[in-house]
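Page header: ASSEMBLY MODEL / three components / 461 residues total.
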Amino acid sequence: MPILQHLCQLLYDSSFGTMLRESNNAFSVIESIHVLSITLVFGTIAILDLRMLGLILRPIAVTRVARSVFPLTWTGFAISFITGFLLFWAESAKMYPNSAFRTKLILLALVGLNPLIFHTTVYRRVHKWEALHLAPWRARAAAIASITLWSGVIIAGRAIAYF
Amino acid sequence: MLACVVTLAAAPAYAHHSFAAEFDITKPVRLVGKVTRIEWSNPHTYFYIDVADASGKVANWAIEGASPGALSRRSWEKDDLKIGQTVVVEGYRAKNGSNTANGRRVTLPDGRALYGGSPGDGGPGDNGTDQGDLPGTPIAK
Amino acid sequence: MLHAWFIALAHSPLGQFMQTSRWGFAVVEMVHLLGLAVLGGSVLIVDLRLLGVVLKRESALTIGRDLGRLLMGSLGVMVLSGIALLSEEAGKCYYSPAFRLKMVFLAATVLFYFTVHRRALQVAELGPPTLFTRAAAIVSLLLWLGVGVAGRAIGLL
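Prediction written out in full:
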């Protein structure tokens, strides 16, 4: 058995994973928090993305919108990550072969790469364009990538149940 | 008691809601079999039974149920089923034709019957309550 | 009479499609989820503005107007997809206490949004946060959260 699959099986068979998987309420509560946290992660970052695309809040500087959104997005991501990890722990052996789950992980990696590129390139010069209604094309590309990738993560997450 | 993961021959792509979307109302089944495995897991519970057909050939069926919490609220608990027990499952076969059925009604050896539908789901026995209207002794609350 | 409406929806062409389609429910549910994310995000930013936590120096009315459009747009998506989801399991939803609670919360939330909440944005435009604007924000957040949690419960009960 490949080592990754073996690790998944270990998590799955563990008493904690089993307890969570067989729980009457804990799994449902954790899953509900995970689902509702998409509002904190995607919902907030989408507002920054839409600002850079010049669709909303044009009178407000991009940096102001970013400053208000980032703490929320990061908080939401922490919540998603923790609850997601717990869900994974409970279902790990079933997640290993699940193509929707694997797709979700790949998209998550890409959705992390996007801001990395964004922040080290076009955003470094943000003070030059923060007041513009329409951000530079690289920023707009990052915004579209962000919206697309996060939507993909959410869709893949929902699809896990169907594979 | 808990099994390690086994890949079902044809993993059901369940539509996740409503009787009619996942299971085929034209394919009612009544299965009598020995419980071989129980997965009392979220998001769906499963138990597996060995069913012998007329010629004696044994096939393993997967019986799908609601989450542990949802079943618990209808007084099904994990230890109501025991490996090796012979149970009667009435339900409907999965639309994809695999050896999967929903546990619309499971009758235990002691005669108690567990109802697997949801109030209003439109399947047989649906009378808008969580005990259903199928004949037999409902499980005591 | 309400029950008859639910049954009619289940028997409608939409209902028939949703009940027989293999992927219909899944796709519509995904749309419902994306709408939820955008709706939640806009609610959060607007109400945090009313609380004076974010974008304090920016116009509450500008934020309220732009994010309000986003909110209403995503709410529209959620209502339409919600009706489609409902048509797939109308009977179950009719009897579901979670669904009924969600509808009550939704009605209360929308009513609150167009009355008290709107007034709070006007007050917030004129000066720093007041007890009124803060209370309106908190009630709004709780009401929307109630809609979301009740919605989750539909599938779990």
